[in-house]
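Quick one - first record:
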Amino acid sequence: MAFLSEADVEQALLDQLCTLDYNIEREEDIGPDGRRPERESYDEVVLKKRFEDAVARLNPGLPWEARQDAIRKVMQSELPSLLEENRRLHKLMTEGVDVEYYAEDGTLTAGKVRLIDFDDPANNDWLAVRQFTVIAGQIKRRPDVVVFVNGLPLAVIELKAPGGENATLAGAFNQLQTYKQQIPALFNTNALLVISDGIAARVGSLSADFERFMPWRTTDGTDIAPKGAPELSTLIDGVFEHRRLLDLLRDFTVFGETGSGLIKIIAGYHQFHAVKKAVLSTLRASQRVVAEDPAAYGLPSVKGQPPGDRKAGVIWHTQGSGKSLLMVFYAGQLIRHPAMANPTLVVLTDRNDLDDQLFSTFSMCRDLLRQTPVQAESREHLQALLNRASGGVIFTTLQKFGEIDGPLTTRSNVVVIADEAHRSQYGFKAKVDAQTGEVSYGFAKYLRDALPNASFIGFTGTPIEADDVNTPAVFGNYIDIYDISRAVEDGATVPIYYESRLARIELDEDEKPKIDAEIEEILEGEEEDVRERTKQKWATVEALVGADKRLRQLAGDIVEHFEARVAALDGKAMVVCMSRRICVKLYNEIVKLRPQWHSDDDNAGAIKIVMTGSASDPQEWQQHIGNKARRDLLAKRFRDPKDPLKLVIVRDMWLTGFDAPCLHTMYIDKPMKGHGLMQAIARVNRVFRDKPAGLIVDYIGIAQNLKSALQQYSRNDQEKTGIDEAQAIAVMMEKYEVVRDMYHGFDYASALNGTPQQRLAVMAGAIEWILDLQQRLAEKESTAEGKKKAHRRYQDAVLALSKAFALASASDEARAIREEVGFFQAVRAALVKSSTGAGATQQERELAIQQIVSRAVVSTEIVDILAAVGIKSPDISILSDEFLAEVQQMEKKNLALEALRKLINDSIRSRSKANVVQTKAFSERLENAVARYHANAITTAEVLQELIQLAKDIRAARQRGEESGLSDEEIAFYDALAENDSAVQMMGDDKLRLIAHELLVSLRENVSVDWAHRQSARAKMRVLVKRILRKYGYPPDLQDAAVQTVLQQAEALLSGWVGSHGGTS
């Protein structure tokens, strides 16, 4: 008995929604067959009366026809794709529906029908329905809780009981994906999805992958629930409080086109609350009066700043946690805020490629911004763009602000939004050129001169350094912080490991690059092209780093390391070099080792250099120098996990602001420090499928600089970045020993280097060994939960080992145990594949962690349990006596049992359409027998006997038709009628056969293509079945159940009928 059932979790959630002022209803009360029906049929998903009442209440000045027109536009689907339709309806819900109507004086008038009241949440109708049933065609689904606002289904919540075997977040997620496929209408107006196992809880958008479902750890943005605390109640309070849910719907949801199609994004809790604080701080800074006292903002750092100081503050949200979108949500809120009187927003970056990346994010979200952003092409263009009365989202680089004659605008509703607000170029200090005596200033001064009354807000992915006085002087203090450790805890980013491979490059002392303090000074400051021309010291180091012998060794080591990495963890890598010359030389060395990786075509090849250049660069560089279109093409290829482009070499392109989640390794061969280093390594911290972490491989000696850069971070952050790879190796060895110990007493050595025949035999022995071990472990457990865990112990241990191996796969220690890990994984795969309900979900298949192709495995295919027992997959419909006898005689009883279980399961599933009643009965018998065995209620020999009997019964059931003169389809209807024993006794066998025949003929003649979708057609079929049953005197008290089963059976056979008989419509 579960400690907490799913119904308990559901009840607790509904009680909580009740305290948040939601009405609670049950499907059995308000469903089509309920006491107070609120919809006519199960395929309707909008509660029409509530919807019509709300539209009337919110639009009292509009005539009935106009309101009906708006309702029609919502109720009728217009677009074939669910996401496209969701975007259309999102716009109608947030902006209102445009309608035309004739006013009382007869003039044609345009109006807007509001569907939701965003100003007064209490003016809406809030409802949560448990077990809301939807039928689409032959499919009936019952999501746990659906939340309605004004009769429109805005949220679907799927719950699992804590502690159940498949009661996982992934299980709840997969269920929602099934609902989206099978009952898409329920999701047309969806705002968000929630999954929970009663303890952990996640919220995601309609298009989010499993890893993009995120926790919501706060209700007010100040108190963050500690990791490990129950998450569901915080999420429900944090997301479903009326005001917050409406804000999320209108101001924190965007749709965007990506390379793989349309996606929908909802803000995370850190973005939602940071924006709220930032807007208040901006209103304070621009002297627009806010009702709250600034002291109540919750952050003492901004509290001390006076109103009207033009410094809105700095938001530090660690890289990879969605900083660009955070800026979009902030911009959208500011534009909408009445106190800002339609502000002009100037978005500032300090590099053209960053400007392009951020601009494309903002452009993607123009619906939220309610305008199209523009990019300033030149200083003159910038001046023209700023010469406006109000409004506008203008993108520019810092360099376009130079000395000017006077202010570009003196308005105070101008906000400058700076990306990476800590760059050295922001500065007021005068610099005097020693040669010419000319005085110049940092761009920050020119910016202030151009926009004297603007307010400034800075966004950064790395903290402000302790000795940086410019950033606070321009922007003010912190508004909000979302650091590395919280991002990793939330699953917004992954930790970063560090591996030094300096020792792998075996050079004489005098050939090793010396990187001294003087060289570190040249790392910050001027643009790199200037640096390369002017700094002799840089050139000296560059010559040592780029020496032929060293690059040959480097290329060899990178190839070997990278191939070992991708064997265990699907993904991509980036190499960072010191100069463009080295980029080209390293490319040539790698291609010498792996010629097949090269291609002259930008659309093909596994390795590319991404760099800029000009016609005056050496001829051999030219193939690698491309325009923006080439870089965009390579970026698109590199971001696509399926594209063969796996390795890119860069100097400084793509080291900031570039997002490729499948990138998991960065090879650094360039001196870097501070912000630059932290931003570069964050390229590998993006979440991708089940990627456990990113890895930085150091060939030049950045360890000390990494330590220094991390000094600005908290201790927790330091523990999640630059983690020594030795830790990953230690964990891997520990997990390896756990699995190896399970084989204590079993010799699998010949699996690693024997003949294919020997390997298969060892494989079979290993599977038998593990099954036996788990059965013995289960015997020692007293609880059902304990027994379940015992039967999964090996699978779970190998999964943990696979994850640890993926992290350390390129290490010498991993190489040493690689074959064994492959063998362990193959045994696990065979066990997982054989368990009931074969066929992994898409979610399970799309993993980054790879199965190691070990010599222990005969082929790359998962070893099939049947092959391991030596059965050449027999025709499962036969299950002959000889075959069953052979199974019974097998030495390896556990293996025989698994094989038979798999065969019977496949056999039952192959008949699932043909005979619904039989399928159900046989499935129950199979599950029951295996469950009793797992609970140690029966022995291996007894369960084998039961399964053999079951196989014989299945075979007999197949032969029944031939003996009784009935077709398979007639047998199926006969079983539907004979499911109840008392019906058989009262009616007799012959009469039931007669009814079965007539049912088949009548249903077949009357079936229409859409009967499963149309309520009227289904009602007609129901009447037809009842009439036939009544005609033959079928017991009235059993009729309802029989009608239900007969229709179910008809639905299962329907596809075959409609295809072959055409059917009437």
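second record:
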Amino acid sequence: MKIITFVLIVLCLSSAVLAVDIDSDIVNEVNQDGTAEVIIVLEDTEEFLDDIDVKSDKSILGFEETHYDLDLNREYDTIDAISAEITEEGLEEIKNNPLVKEITLDRINKIFLDESVPILNISETMVNSQLIDGTDHSICVIDTGINYSHSAFGSCTNESFISGTCNKVIAGYDWCADNNGCTTEDNDPEDVNGHGTAVSGMVASTNETYTGVASGAHIVAMKVCNSQGNCKDSDVLSAIEWCTTNSTKYNISVISMSLGGGQYTSYCDSEVNSQYATLINNAVGKNISVVVSTGNTNGNNQANGIAAPSCIKNATRVSATDKSDNMASYAFRHENFPDILLAPGSSITSSKLDGTFGNAGSGTSYSAPHVAGAIALIQQYYNAIKNLSLTPAQLIQAFNVTGKRISDSDTGVDFSRIDVNATFNTVDATSPTLSLISPTPDDNTVTTSNVSINLSSSEILATPLLEWNGTNESMAGSAYHFETAKTGLAKGNYTFRIYAQDFIGNTASTSERTITVANSLPTVSSATVSPASATTLTNLTCVNGTVTDSDNDSINLSFVWYNDGISNTTTQVLDSSSTSTGESWYCGIIPNDGEGNGVQVNSSTITIQNSVPGLATLLSPSINYTTNLTLDFDWSDVNDTDGDTLSYTFLLSTNDSFIFSTVNVSVSETNVTQAVSENSYFWRVDSCDASDCSSSSTSAFEVDTTLPVVNITSSSLNNSYGNLSYSVFETNLADCNYTFRNASVIASARLFNTTTEVELFEQYNGDYNLSVTCTDFANNEASTSQLITLNDTTLPTVSLSTTSSGDEEVDVKLTATTNEPSTCRYDVNDAAYDTLLAMSTTGNQTHEVTKEYTEDTSDTLHVRCRDLNGNTMQTSTTVDVIVDVDEPSSSESSSSSSSSSSSSSGDSSSSSSRTTPSFSEEVETIQEVQEPRESPQKVFAEQGIVTLQELLGENDSEDLRNMLEEAQAALSNENYVRVLELVEQAQSLGVQAVNNLDEVQDAIEGSVLTGAAIFSGAKDFAGKIPWLPVSIILFLALLSFGYFRFLKPATWESKRVFWRKKSKKDSNAFSQEVYQLGLQRKK
């Protein structure tokens, strides 16, 4: 029982210890509004957020989440803390959470509202040719943002700022992008209040009249306040963290804040949000001064304390003086903060939000940027002279020690108003440390006539002075290192020392040194043999490098040559007569100034080389093929640069590697006569002296005495061409030709194939001699011939076509095309060839005539042809012509043209009396009604097969079965025209009579036939259908004529041409749609 009681007591005590003190302001705000904006300092942020109920950004079914502990605003990167909106339940939930170290209200801070710069005693200061204006330093201004387009900041555009290319305002961030509740962020710190623009102008304006304290410094703008100048703790903390984290990237040396709240009489590190102290200490740890204004009063409490966060221990606190350089009545201060720095804060003219300049008002807000700019100046200055930076504490001390004392009767403290120039002069009170470094000669040493004196300093120096034998002279160099070279010194004793001062005026000097200059021996930098490679014909020269004598004595050079290490001659030039192939030579050079010899320098060794003989040029034979069996081989003589006597080796081989040479002859002349046999050869010539040989290029040729073997393997003639096949055996065949001749014809041409077609220029019967001649590359020639006979008894074939043109007078042009040279005749009545009318002939195979018509008519034109051997067509080929002549019109004229075609061989029987269109002719003529489509032949042929199958089903006969089998075979072989011909033959048997009647009815219903066409068609059908009364056909024709003449006049012209053309045409031009219109007889 006692143990249990003890555990309960321990648990109660533990709970009491773990509970976090809650600011009454937080409790009051939660009780009043239900939530409060707070900053929570944690042991571990990630673990805390995992345990707490954080409001989700997502809605559920359109309703926002209402039950949560806190609404997270921001997590910090470098500290374990968050800012959030907390509910009453959340506050109760976390106050005993062991991960929670501190909960503070996210308080609202307020911004503290040409003559100022001179008061600070800032004058143009140069250090080592560098203007001290804050260059290379950046000041992070945490305020209401900035108008970076203002001329004081370089008139930067929004696009340039966002891309990071502005010269003055180089970076920034907006923690209050909505300019009101500060709930959104972006990367454009656009000022909508004006306070931040004025503060930034006081820091670094480049305007010539209203110049900032550090006009060369960069601005990094942090916007943390809304348009009314209210700034949340959480945003200010985020800005301090951002500036510290990015300090290295932007070289930020100062953070300036002209804002705050409350009033404190001692350090407030533990009284306000503890993260102010944490983040300011982090910045100071990175040598960044955090400058904060102390705040302003609206009453009489100016000496009762200073605002947070200026009360943070490591902050640089700044209060204000007035126009008379007295303590400003409105400025916060307190006796417990004697390190407060003062700067002008009353009626300051600066950059305004609208792009102009004007009175920004008064307040410690405007004192802080003066000090921030001054710190940038001091840091640049100290870096220039010491290559170091001062710490924030050292800067505060320096400003306090060197500033003007301003007495404050309210606190009894004499505060320091900063004096920049005084701080410059007080920063460095130490003299530089001077050191003489190598190669400066030591004291009491003997040296040469050339002396170099080198100085090193512990800090940047103004120009030091060298005292040389009692006379001062300047030294070359800069910053930490200087030097002077003394050359050509006469023999004797010399004294020297160096005086120097830093830029503050601190002086220093080295101790005096004495040196003795004695005689200096001359030197030669190098010895070189020229040329670098040589033969026995080359003179060698020993070339000296740079000759140096510090005493400027006259120098003589001695030369010596060494052959294989043994001294041989003492001239500078070694004559070629002294050298031989294979010897090794080098030279040495010895300088002398009259008092002694310098050190001898030797060249590298070269070996005398033999000159390789040149290459012989092969002159003849220059041919690729020859029939000669004895050849003269000639080549050019070779000049040897060494003058050696040369010999030549002639090599002749059947392979280009010359491994098995058939001939290898050494001669002193440049020609050889050599017998050869039939073969392929390679030859070259080697030019040789006593040491080396060089080979010429290789030339090739072939000896060929064998004639080609030529045979005509087959030949034949017909009425158009001769066919020739031949064989030839020849390895080096160059060309073959044929000759074809009889008494009146000679034809010849080059042959490209061993089987070829020989075209006859004229095709008369008779005997022809056909010969073939072949030649090889050695011009060996062989021929063979054969006698063949042409006996042409084949009749010519002809195809006909017609074209017509004109309207009132129609010209019909008849064209006959024969398969061989012929003459053709024609007439409207068939007759023997000799009695027909002549046609004009073009090119032996095209024959034409034009016939004129003046009235409507129809003709059948008959054509017969005769070839050159008298073979004459015994039957004519015909083509039907229908002429439609338009009557003259007073208001308009029309034109028409038509064409038809027919073909036949001379021995076929054809009739010109047929007027009823066949199945194939129907398909051919219908193509005028519609535009053609791609390749419908197969479709037509397949329909023809269906038609034959239906006919066979209605009338089973052996003829129809044979036709169907042949048509199916033709369809498989893609012979679609033959399929149509077989269907046509089936029509001639009369088995399509009923279908013809269906076609007439279909034409009436489908608006295809004109009345006249139906009338003509009915007559033809009646001839084929004797059992059908003609009267029915006439009645249907009249009925159709009336319908199309009066009810369908618009389609009259398109239908009347239906029956005009009956000759066969290539079914490639047929249209599928027209085929469906005119040929679907199954309906």
